[in-house]
Amino acid sequence: MNRRSTTRLVTLAAATGLAVASLTGCAGGGGDEGGDGEVTLTWWHNGTTGPLPEVWEEVATEFEEAHPGVTVEQTGYQNEDLQRTLIPNALAAGDPPDLFQVWPGGELRDQVENGYLMPLDDVIPDTIDSVGATVNPWQVEGATYGIPFTFGIEGFWYNTDLFEQAGIDAPPTTLDELIDDVGALREAGITPIAVGAGDKWPAAHWWYQFALHSCSPETLQAAETEFDFSDDCWVEAGEQLEDFLGIDPFQEGFLGTPAQQGAGSSAGLVANGQAAMELMGHWNAGVIGGLTPDQQVPEFLGWFPFPGIEGAAGDPTAALGGGDGFACSAEAPPECAELLEFIMSEDVQAKFAASGAGIPTVPAATSSLEDPNLTLVAEGLAASSFVQLWLDTAFGTTVGNAMNDGIVNLFGGSGTPDEIVTKMQDAAATL
Q: Domain of life, per the record (predicted)?
């Protein structure tokens, strides 16, 4: 898994609160209604690992029991496939699922402009109000088209036992300390950091973090609102990433490693003690837990935010983050909004929190968080000066894809820091 003034930078107030071979059989485009008045809702989400698939299955069953005549066909897909292939193709073909995962920013705006999404303000206003300002990135010109069910920030998920073995007694608070810790882990014979660069976006997030901590908040906002990438900090971010790659922080073969699928993924390497840490979003505890032999979040797991860069213009307490939300297709039956309302109810949000799948957006449900690491993330969220949405999401598909391509090239040794910015500027010029 974001724009226009209030939706461009998510403030602390906002924070609190496969390619599948075929799309046939995806009953979309307004649900299925038989002659007897029964309704079938199709629901696509990214719950494929950890506790989330079971949570969504229970939600579908409970909704059906409370709504006789309604059948919910929920299906989980890998996040990248869902976001980049399945949903765009289904929307373009005029056969979308009724309820589906929707990301804020450029993608949401494009979907709204094409008339793909149902306006929600007059349908479930109380549900929208329940999540407060976190809904802002899912709004376009003040109208709400999606509702986030989880929101959090990115940080390092790390193995406290391996840190102890390497003689590291506390997480790093500066980039220099992180570099020292990478060296200490290498000296102890431990792979310091796992990254799923095979999926591209986890590699891109490293550059995002260097940009976040090198550019001032004002520069970040100007980039979102005006696509102004003229500040030197954008090139500096690439230079810092280049220097970091030079200390050999990642596992062997990281360019081909997936992020969240299987024991050999970056999350799997952390889950099974083969790497000390991974930079990843707030959902990662559940993913890591789903990749351990006993399917449980390991006791050794800890979390800390990306450290600040001393002397840089960026705010050291800024965080990079975002969330996942759901929207109804424009032609979905009324029952779709009712299902979304049910998903966002306090009881379901509490179930979601207690499962360890993520941080809920309904404030009253945060007390149900049981995973101490998610509590740490929630505390980190509250301590952040502001939360910048994922940069590819913030800049939209055209600029975001060009930016990610440039970063991946740098990761692979075939690109330069300047070329990342040039790709972004050239892409922005086409808008």
A: Bacteria
Rounded distance, CA 227 to CA 220, Å? Answer: 9
Whether the CB-CB separation of 397 and 107 falls below 8 Å is answered with yes
DSSP alpha helix (H) spans, 232-333 = 233-245, 266-271, 284-290
Tens digit of each residue's pLDDT (9 = 90 or more) over 362-399: 988 989 998 888 888 888 888 887 888 899 988 988 99
The list of the chain residues with pLDDT below 70 reads 1-37
| Amino acid present at 363 | P
- Distance between CA atoms of 257 and 339, rounded to whole angstroms? 36
Neighbours of 429 (CB within 10 A): 10
Which structural domains are found in the chain, ordered by start? Answer: 5-152+321-388 (3.40.190.10), 153-319+390-428 (3.40.190.10)
Please give the Cα distance from 82 to 346 (Å, whole number): 27
Residue carrying structure tokens 């892409």: 427
Give 271-285 pLDDT, tens digit per residue.
Answer: 999 999 999 998 898
DSSP 133: G
Instruction: Quote the strand ranges of 24-121, DSSP E.
Output: 32-33, 39-45, 70-76, 99-102
pTM of whole model > 0.85? no
For 186-221, the pLDDT digits (tens) are 999 999 999 999 999 999 999 999 999 999 989 998
Nearest to 323 by CA among 184, 174, 133: 133
Whether residue 326 contacts residue 348, with contact meaning beta carbons closer than 8 Å, is answered with no
In whole angstroms, give the CA distance from residue 415 to residue 218: 27
> What kind and span of H or E run contains 209?
helix 201-214
User: What is d(CA 232, CA 242) in angstroms, rounded to the nearest whole number?
Assistant: 15
Q: Cα–Cα distance between 376 and 154 in angstroms, integer? A: 11
Which CA distances in Å does 31 have to 18, 37, 40, 75? 23, 12, 6, 15
